[in-house]
Please model this.
Amino acid sequence: MGRLDGKAAIVTGAGQGIGRGIALIMARENAHVAVVDVNPDTAASTAKEIEVRGGRAVAIRCDVGIRAQADAAIAATAKAFGRLDILVNDAQRIIGEINLEDMTDEVVQQSFQSGFMGTFYFMQGCFPYMRANGGKIVNVGSAAGTEGMARWGAYSATKEAIRAITRVAAKEWGKYNINVNAICPASMTPAIESWMKVDPDTFKASLARMPLGRYGDPENDIAPVVLALVSSDFNYVTGQTIMVDGGAAVLR
Model:
């Protein structure tokens, strides 16, 4: 028996990092998981990992910023599993280290299309499946947005837009028993690992802002919080942002 027995979930950006960790822990709790990622190879790898562990998964290649592909991924999930109960929007193209005065329309559009629009497309597309029987949605924000991180203007704005639509959806969809929440994680993702190698001094300085002194592990630190939000444990929580950041927010 698992905490998500009989549930079907979509996790975007599940080919690596946080998305992969979330997909794995949901499968461990007996959810059927649609592993959605723009990279078909990493999507297939996560799905295979789930199946090797005894779970059920489908790998779906999808550019979340294209509505037709998002709709097709949702339809494929519903066809494979016969239902849709959980949505986790993790996919986001990371574009940063650009001064505001140098930011181009293309940079802003790429960030918003992959992050906010992708989140919006999947929320809107999943709503008809959840309206009758309820559901759980978790969107991924970032402290880059909550604190206004310098040189990350497009990314920060995208993540704050995601938190805003999370709150709106919580208010509009609560009557359908749909919970909508967000997390702002600090996790040792491939992007953070690259940053650690390129700029070790700044990386070390960032650790000093975390009372727990480390970035979280995607599967063991970040994913369990998402699991709680999509399980019956948090049925009375909606419209919230949870900082899953080793306590960094308290030092800001």
In short: Residues 105-131 form the longest helix (27 residues). The mean pLDDT is 95. Residues 8-251 form a domain with the Rossmann fold fold (CATH 3.40.50.720).
